[in-house]
Design brief:
402 residues
């Protein structure tokens, strides 16, 4: 191709210095994160918490399935899974058939399932229930999230927590600071001959002005980010993510962890779990997407020293009613299972399985307070006195972490 100068390329392609800087950035950009990893890397022995939110209220009974129980089969005759359809976990329970990868983690003792997780005096409202989970305040509304309060207590540095989502979740907002936000972008870097020329633009020439030099640095930053974090920011030519949205988020998180970015908490999410009708196919598809994202993520974490310090929490704002509705779906319920996984987790069942015959007006009764899980992770992963974040709660979940 003809000689390509930085000025000509930027003009011809419509890329400005500001545009190049913004392509991989929202509240924080690649430069900030990767410079922080270089100049202030995370202690290799520091724990990292990755929070996965399943928005919509995932049906726990069709996730961790009591398929052999007559009460389960009777309550949802068309929606229930048969014992031979689920992935056997023991104790009469099985994983949804869409979760084969997580079954492998279970077999390797890397997956913990906390049963019957909920909160006192449950509320069937999405808005109120999610507010309770994200603020860890069941009794009254508070303006701060539980991990936002952790940020306040741990030094108020926004880079200590990063949301890889389109919107910063309330749980990451404190009284004095909020987490940084870095949504997965749709950037696709040029390839072939054009790509080589474009990459050459990353070298500043002597005597260039400030904006030309900044454009050069922007190009260098983008290639550096791709080298460290992989192809997670790329989209296919039709503009769609090459991977599912959650897988792309977790790929990005894995790269940041491996790079030594000084972030202790990451937040990602997957929506669509409000299955009032035709639940079985929809939920199994979503759980398979969760499985396809979480399994390689966990396996990747297990291959590096930094990754082995990470623990993943997977929760939803509530479970579903025990009985199916007339549309072969389920309505808003209460308690449900929570997944905790990682190299440092004691795999297996934790907490008591809720009864299917002793119900609260058709709902499962909570057997594990969600704040017990939070307190355990705050102390065992983040090394923080849980009382500073959950001042009115003293419970812990014994045996979940070493």
């Amino acid at each position: 191709m003809n000689k390509l100068t930085r000025r000509r390329f930027l003009i011809a392609s419509g890329v400005t210095a500001a545009g190049a800087l913004a392509a991989g950035a929202t509240q924080v950009d690649w430069t900030q994160l990767l410079d922080a990893a270089q100049h202030n890397p995370l202690d290799p022995n520091a724990g990292v918490l990755v929070v996965v939110t399943l928005y919509g209220g995932n049906d726990g009974l069709n996730t961790v399935v009591p398929a052999s129980e007559h009460a389960y089969q009777d309550a949802r005759p068309e929606l229930a899974y048969k014992p031979e359809e689920v992935l056997d976990l023991g104790e009469g329970l099985g994983l949804n058939p869409g979760m084969k990868g997580l079954k492998g983690l279970w077999d390797n003792k890397e997956l913990a399932i906390v049963r019957g997780v909920g909160y006192p005096k449950p509320d069937h409202s999405h808005f109120r229930s999610m507010a309770i989970w994200q603020t860890a305040s069941p009794e009254s509304s508070v303006p701060t999230g539980w991990l936002g309060r952790w940020l306040d207590a741990s030094g108020a540095d926004p880079l200590r927590a990063v949301s890889v989502e389109p919107v910063l979740p309330p749980m990451l907002a404190g009284a004095r600071t909020a987490a940084a936000s870095l949504p997965v972008s749709g950037l696709k870097l040029p390839s072939g001959a054009l790509g080589k020329s474009f990459q050459g633009l990353a070298t500043a020439d002597p005597g260039e002005g400030v904006w030309q030099a900044r454009a050069a640095r922007s190009v260098a930053d983008l290639y550096r980010a791709e080298q460290v974090l992989g192809k997670t920011v790329a989209r296919d030519p039709k503009g769609k993510h090459q991977k599912g949205a959650l897988a792309a988020q977790l790929d990005l998180v894995a790269g940041l962890i491996e790079a030594g970015v000084p972030t202790r908490v990451y937040s990602v999410s997957l929506g669509g779990f409000d299955t009032h009708a035709d639940e079985r196919g929809t939920q199994q598809r979503l759980l398979a997407e969760l499985d396809d994202a979480l399994t390689p993520f966990a396996q990747r974490l297990g291959r590096t020293d930094r990754g082995r310090q990470a623990v993943v929490l997977v929760y939803s704002e509530f479970g579903r009613r025990v009985a199916a509705n007339a549309s072969e779906g389920t309505d808003h319920g209460t308690a449900g299972p929570v997944f905790v996984l990682g190299n440092g987790v004691r795999g297996g069942f934790h907490g008591a399985e809720p009864s299917l015959t002793d119900l609260d007006n058709g709902d499962l009764k909570e057997t594990t307070d969600f704040r017990d899980v939070y307190a355990t992770l705050l102390e065992g992963v983040l090394g923080t006195d849980a009382g500073k974040v959950l001042p009115d709660h003293s419970g812990r979940l014994d045996g979940l972490l070493p």
